[in-house]
Please model this.
Amino acid sequence: MIRAIDGDALRTGDGRSRQAAPLVRVRILRQDVAGGESYWERFEVPHEPNMNVISLLQKIAAAARTQDGRRVAPVAWDCSCLEEVCGSCTMLINGRTRMACSALVDKLLEENGGEVELRPMSKFPVVRDLVVDRRRLFRSLERVQAWVPVDDSYDHGPGPRISPEQQQDAYPLSECISCGCCLEACPQFTKIEPVLRDGESDADFEARRRQAFDAAFLGAHAISQAMLFNSHPTGGMIADERMESLTGRGGIQICGNAQNCVAVCPKRIPLTRSIARAGRAATVWAIKKLFDR
Ligand code: SF4
Ligand code: SF4
Ligand code: FES
Model:
């Protein structure tokens, strides 16, 4: 599973030999620039107990040499919290979307014949190597206004009380870390990667990108957050605006209910429950709009 270094023994200061650390084989799909060609590179890293994928990447970046000794640019990736909170380290690890900080190397070697394979998420444009542009994920949250609106900063006193049952119901949804795993796994969420046209200004390009995002599927994370904030006594004040977004272009009607999203969510958020609730709310909303005419 893990190959020993060639010659398999190192000599210590007192002349005795000791066993060299076994090597972990890693295959990474790299890309030098946005829109560029991607290519595979192989690396080998001395094995240490309890390594995660981030520690593997740190060693690869520090050595910046391929398996055959060629000097290369350090591999780029995103991470911050290292404890499954910031949501920035999502990548395809052995073909499955997951968080690099919580993916343990020994388990990965077992599931993939002794090699770890790393690829960037496929539903977002690559910036470099394993770093992707996740702006669309955050734009979806803006589209559904995934926040409690506060239009000033003076003290309003205590907010409305929420029963323990309501808290229990809402808490799992509040654990979303905007990692994008649910979007990567969703057949209805497809990649949008506009290219700057000749003579197009940055402002026009940005507006075109925004239009493309706003016409496309919101994704399970945004649907779930819309349900979370609509159920909140203060957040619910703009529930109608959220329902407009949820039932508009790229809304809940695009969801094919394949349920891939719930299977890959690292926080085990009950996304299918949120999607079912959003579907029911959309029906009620459509009937209400019919009678309001
Ligand atoms: S249930 Fe809907 S959001 Fe989830 S993976 Fe399927 S199509 Fe995508
Ligand atoms: S719903 Fe789950 S998979 Fe989707 S962004 Fe939030 S934490 Fe990640
Ligand atoms: S580094 Fe923050 S979730 Fe992995």
The CA atoms of residues 186 and 261 lie 6 Å apart. Strands lie at 3-4, 9-11, 17-19, 22-31, 38-46, 90-93, 96-99, 115-119, 126-128, 131-132. Confidence is low (pLDDT under 50) at residues 1-13. Residues 176-182, 220-221, 224, 265-267, 269, 271 surround iron/sulfur cluster (ligand 2) (CB under 6 Å).
